[in-house]
Amino acid sequence: MAKKFVCTPTEPVVETVEGKIRGFILDGTYCFHGIPYAEADRFCQPHPVPAWEGVRDALSYGYVCPLMEQDVPDKEVLVPHRYWLMDEHCQNLNLWTRSLDPKAKKPVMVWLHGGGFSAGSAIEHIAYEGDRLCEFGDVVVVSVNHRLNLLGYLDLSAFGEKYKNSANAGNADLVAALEWIHRNIAAFGGDPDNVTLFGQSGGGEKVLTLMNTPAADGLFHKGIIESGVTDLTPGSSCDGVPLVRAMLEYLGLPESEVAQLETLPYRRLVEAYKAVAGKVGRAGNYIGNWPVANEWYKGNPREVGFTDHAKTIPVLIGTVMGEFCFDPGVQNKYALSEDEAMALVEEKYGDATPRLVELFRAAYPGKNLTDLLYLDAFFRGPTQQFIALRSATCTAPTYSYLFSYDFPIDGGKTAWHCSEIPFVFHNTCRTPLFNVPGETDRLEEQISGAFVHFARYGNPSIPALPDWTACKEGDEATMVLDKNSELRHNFDAELIKELIATGAAPNMTLLDSVSPDGNKVTVRH
């Protein structure tokens, strides 16, 4: 089918507070790529971009933040990626809209990418492209690049006033992006008073941290957290001094010359970090690459509670059934006999098998027994705790989901980390594995429709799904999203407790390190 493309010297041009920008139109969707929203010196707080004369092109994706590790293409059929040019001056955003009428007041959905606080980018996944979600939901979609890893989260606060908030510089970039959106989104047909943050994995964690960041109060009004709550967050009393001192010693620099870290080539900075972080971490010290609680960021709400403003923000939160199931899994699992499947489960869980099997079959009737081998508790357990805390202490509603679809590869593969993203973005057509006639298209309409409805109205209940009620204290109402979606109440609470108790599920006691690799969480035992 032929598509209509428009890009002339005068169309589409939008006047922002900072100056005029030009994008392009494809089949009625206005697209603007690589819009600068802030500038910053290394380790310092961002500030608005100076105004410019004339018209600035927004026709190319902007730089993404440099990564500490080289991305390696792997299992692209599961999570199709793309890779882009890197530079630490990466404060830019992408925007898709169906209207440039300032009176349109369409809901705004702001995507925060995954990869922990160390990796990833706004365009890393092919499924992050925002045009189809914009068209399907009639919403304005924005995706944001910001500083990561050492550039965004190295605590230098003890070494000078200019570094006071260096441990949260990456999140400060996100606040700057939200401020840009608040100033300018009406010119793109968006409603600055109806902004929803949504993010997956590290992106979900960013939503959570921004909820407890007073500088972001009033800049967003709803939050969607996808597989974004873990026990990996550092405590509220972090001290970056041991790490920085060790890096300076490795580099042969006295503390009085800490400012040299501002101009050191990025790869040299990473080299120093890698050389000392293991030893610093083993001594029980903070090793960076994560926000630090201070006057600017109040801390993880699971540890310090929610701010008064965070209590008023509706939240949609969930996980997927087999978060860590990146490997081939159990191939042709449906061809296994009951005894063969049970033998695999017993090999992993030993004496805990009978109780786990009983609880699994009650929670997941109809699922293959071998899915128990990959059942997630690493994200699900902390997410349940987060929901319980919100249900007991917050006035705004919290809605829970669990994605458990079985994918058509290797004879059936349970849902893994990131596998809900193409459904959320209405992008299954861009991801080959996510296409089963009459099945994935229906699920895509349900999931994308529910997320859009939440962004528009603050609840995800749509006619295509069973009635989706909010969680209450003692009652986690979870929408299990699958071939036949249904709302379940506390359906896996005992199963997750038992799974964690076995010690077989990934948790903090088993982790030497967790490093994001292109938004694929790598667990080293």
Describe the model:
The chain is of the alpha/beta class. Mean pLDDT is 93; it is low at 507-525. A hairpin with a 2-residue loop joins strand 18 and strand 19 (520-524). The longest helix has 18 residues, at 440-457. The protein has a 12-stranded mixed β-sheet, sandwiched between helices. A 3-stranded mixed β-sheet has the order 2-3-6, with no helix packed on it. 26% of the residues lie in helices and 17% in strands. It has helices spanning 131-137, 149-152, 169-184, 202-211, 241-251, 266-282, 301-304, 338-349, 353-363, 380-393, 421-424, 440-457, 493-502; strands at residues 5-6, 13-15, 20-22, 24-26, 29-36, 55-57, 92-97, 106-112, 140-144, 190-200, 222-226, 315-320, 398-403, 406-407, 413-414, 477-481, 486-489, 513-517, 520-524.
Distance between the termini: 50 Å
Number of helices, counting only DSSP H or I runs of 4 residues or more: 13
Helix-strand makeup class: alpha/beta
**Oligomeric assembly:** single chain
Proportion of residues in β-strands: 15-25%
**Radius of gyration in whole Å, from Cα?**
23 Å
Keywords, please?
525 residues, alpha/beta, twelve-stranded mixed sheet, 13 helices, globular
Would you summarize the structure shown here?
The chain is an alpha/beta fold and 525 residues long.
